[in-house]
Amino acid sequence: MRVGVAREIKQQEYRVALTPAGARELVKRGHEVLVERTAGVGSAFPDEAYERAGATIVSVDDVWARSDLLLKVKEPIAPEYPRLREGLTLFTYLHIAADEPLTQALVESGITAIAYETVETDHGALPLLAPMSEIAGRLAPQAGADHLEKPKGGRGILLGGVAGVAPARVLILGGGMVGYNAAVIALGMGAQVTILERSVERMRFLEQILSGRVQLLMSSSLQLEEAIKDADLTIGAVLIPGALAPKLVTRELLETMKAGSVFVDVAIDQGGCAETSKPTTHDDPVYIVEDVIHYCVANMPGAVPITSTRALTNVTLPYVEQLADNGATGAVAANSELARGVNVIGGKLTYAAVAEAHGMDYTPLRDALAAGVA
Ligand SMILES: NC(=O)c1ccc[n+]([C@@H]2O[C@H](COP(=O)([O-])OP(=O)(O)OC[C@H]3O[C@@H](n4cnc5c(N)ncnc54)[C@H](O)[C@@H]3O)[C@@H](O)[C@H]2O)c1
């Protein structure tokens, strides 16, 4: 199969969907790999590294026109819509429930579109989203520590303190993938860490792996009220799958927080867990409400493309290999995780939540495949 790797053209996106190591694996399996010129440069992979791995460097027109399977990181944007076509399988983050024009373009083009974010295990885990949560979680204390410095407008407290001076207090709302990783880094920086979580089972797990080094408390509005007024850095990391984040931090509660404290709302991509949260960008990451510095960057992993690209491709490559070896229809028939990733195939919308979001017709994947649409 001919596997293409497109260069990302979305602003401030430096990741690439395949590393030279991944290219070499595909070439070894007998596939042809086409990489768009300079696709890997933002992640510190020059074209020559792909060539050494056996890939061919091609133009943007060639990578879209000649590939059977095209790998990307972000969803296609409007200038790329005319390149969508029948016979092409696209494997990338899509998030089309929030993007009607792209949904229409995918359906009209006849392409097969498989979304990283809806690839799902039989236990409901989202393996292609998890590494981005790990990264965002690990970045959160780093960003928080930076903005706690006085010249950045913060309280002027060092996360780890020093001998004889108390460390800063870090409060983490939600102890899932983001929360756990935030705790690991905050602990490593010497902070005093509290996690509020609402799942007892998850707290037992955190208790075991963090061996009593963090304070684990059942999440309730009273507990939050008590903990948040003492926090120097609060990290929002709650998730209710498929729903907007609960607004745990009300404006009233914000007024009780220390002046110059920092609130990093990682859950901003689900609307954020404070009433005062609104998305920001790496260019202009913070704003202040009630003397609390809000950091609400919606694509935190974008700040560290060298790490993010490797973390992403580590988890996507096994699926890419299956798609390349068996073709899209063969691979999704054999692998239920990949099947859940299929959003659009042969002009049919095969992901119920997306169809519902846009009031469009939904066709179960089984029916679409039986009709031979691909
Ligand atoms: N901003 C970014 O760049 C970025 C990057 C990656 C992930 N995220 C977002 O971060 C959020 C967390 O992701 P995750 O992978 O850690 O999810 P996760 O499902 O692993 O963890 C969420 C945790 O929140 C807990 N929770 C739910 N309601 C709660 C409440 N009221 N109080 C306390 N805990 C509660 C759940 O029990 C769960 O343990 C998601 O919204 C995700 O989309 C953002």
DSSP strand count: 15
Mean pLDDT: 95
Quaternary structure: single chain
Helix content: 25-40%
* Helix count, DSSP H or I runs of 4 or more residues: 13
Structural class: alpha/beta
In this entry the ligands are:
nicotinamide-adenine-dinucleotide
* Spatial separation of the terminal alpha carbons: 16 Å
Shape, principal axes of CA atoms: globular
Q: Give the amount of beta strand, in percent.
A: 15-25%
Instruction: Give the ordered list of helices and strands.
Output: EHEHEHEEHEHEHEHEHEHEEEHHEEHH
Radius of gyration from CA coordinates: 22 Å
Trace the largest sheet across and list its strands: 3-2-1-4-5-6-14-15
Low-confidence residue ranges: none
Described by strand count, sense and barrel closure, the largest sheet is: 8 strands, mixed
Short description:
The protein has 374 residues and is of the alpha/beta class. It is 36% helix and 16% strand. Helix 6 (177-188) links the parallel strand 7 and strand 8.
